[in-house]
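User: For documentation purposes, I need each entry recorded in a consistent format: the amino acid sequence on its own, followed directly by the corresponding structure tokens. There are two entries in this batch. Please keep commentary to a minimum and don't merge the entries.

Assistant: Recorded as requested. Entry 1:
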Amino acid sequence: MKVLLVTKQILSVREGRVYSQFALSSTLEIFQRFGSLYVCACRDDRESTQPVDTVTCLDAAHVAFLDSEKGLKKRFFDRRHNKETIRRFAKEVDMVIGYVPASVSDLAFRVAREEKKPYMTFLVACVWDGMWHHRNWKARLMAPIEFRATRHTVLHSQYAWYVTEQFLQQRYPTRGKSLGCTDTNIPEELSDILTRRMLHIDDNDGSLTLLTVGHLDVGFKGQQFIIRALPKLLAKGVNVRLQMIGAGKGDHLMQLAHTLHVQHCVETLGKCTRAQVLQYMDQADVYVQASLQEGLPRSVAEAMSRAMPVVGSRTGGIPEMIDAAFVTRRKNVDDIVQAVLAMNKDTMRQQATRNFEVSHRYLPSQVNARVNEFFETIKREQKG
């Protein structure tokens, strides 16, 4: 079976090889289970959250590049190139898949209908949360339009794959057949991680290193709320520091830290490879995700797989993952403070054990069976 994946994420073709971010590479591998995979994506000419340095199994001849649709002109009036590019591959395949949210995926849905091809939405996040809480006012202006477009696309898809169990399904229902299952790719080998975490907790000297992962300039990843929590934690006698991983300059975040006189407690680590992210997770004490937009965040699942205690906002699929006692109200700095203050050694041991055990839900051996069954259903229906 031939399928086309349309996404605003980034690919790069160098010397005949196709490269992607690590997170996207595992998604590409999953969709290759259909048979032959074609991809329309953006070029590696803009800033991405992670390095575009992972070699994929894609055939370079099966990759076509789209123009970015940032801005009203590109979104509504200058789409000929993207539409023709998507249509060229859509004619060759048996099904079109849209990586949602993305305006190019909404365009792909229309092309699929025109070409009478079945369509599957792969829904990874809430477009409303991401755009409404964006730092750019133009993005906030577009939020209602993109929300309605995404709801329409998902509603009328023949198939929908949600990365959450409940949240995205409730906000973006479908009339088609659906799967609620993460595509997070955690290594199967987790043998001594919990033991090492317990030693790390026991050896703690009373200081506390918080870690968060997310683009530094978008606003909806919520780092600003963690920074606002730092002076309150310091006032309580907590020797705390914050490490932030992610692309972007983060100037507004560091300016906030300076304003609050906690710049000495804040460190930006920039874009990191997956191996580097896991290394920082092993060295830090508590993972904090104060996001205003998420699907089922890979970084939270990875932190749990490293047996990290986790504090997270009531956003997207985060409450489906972590202990309810450490789910904070969105934008609520005091909730973050109280959750971090509760992280004594006994609590950290309990949360480390709990999160490590729950992370096994996201192992490939647990996920693959459900995904394969869903794909086989699709294949049978399309052959019939």
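Entry 2:
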Amino acid sequence: MTAALCMTALLLQQPVAPAPPVESPTEEVIIAAPEPRYVAPTLRDRIGRVWAPVYVNGQGPLRLVLDTGATRSAVTAEAAARLQLPVREAPTVLLRGMTGEAQVPLVDVESIEIGDLTVEPAKLLVVQDAFGGAEGVLAARGLKDRRILIEFRKDHIEIRRSKNQRAPEGFTVLPIRLIRGHVPSVEAVVGRIRVKAIIDTGAQLTTGNLALRDALLARSRLDDKPDQLVGVTGDVQEGPTSRVPPIYLGKVRVSNAHITFIDLYIFRHWRLTDEPAIMLGMDVLGVLDTLVLDYRRREMQIKLVQ
């Protein structure tokens, strides 16, 4: 068995017209600090993550990182011991993370409760660490009829059944496509280059594939500095981090963004090496006021800080 758990943490150029729509002004957000605080800062990287209160076998709540890029939920070995889960008797599966893969236990649990959603029975991966301070990761897989509401400035998260409601006034709406049936992606633009943007609330940094880097270098120089990512499997991958032209998400323009360019294991696993692609991490997503992922409507609804 294999499980993909994505936490960190086009060889052809595609020139396009400028991204801002002509019918309405573009909203802009500027990333002003390299280490902004969003929902709850972690000990390892000091980048805020989206924490979800989760009950396992009626015990909790556990503080799990909501990871829209993960296929299976996981808890740390310490949390598994506290819950008295049968880790030693559990079979192992191949865990595919952002930077590599590893064999980890897969334990059976009676129930997992998130908001008004109860999954019973269920299975949990057991990992050694989930980004200092977190007790695990909550995968978005299985939320096909759910609506995730994250209000960053209010430190508030809701996971409820979608009522198919439209976005309120003032929100930008982008249709999402689900990679492998569960990983949300939207169409975005970096400068003048169209990219596939994976929404990854489990990643601390926005990463790009080498196809995007090649396309950007064909237009201008990049001011690189070395960086690295540590995945949940413990594997480390290195690559340059560069300030990039504005990222456009529909009408929303994100300025002063940086992208770390790495030939990530997960890009190859998802077959996203031949076209420009990015994984939008919390350094970009966390500067929003509100983020809604409505899996029933297949929409991402975003609102900027007023």
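Summary note for entry 2:
The chain is about 10% helix and 45% strand.
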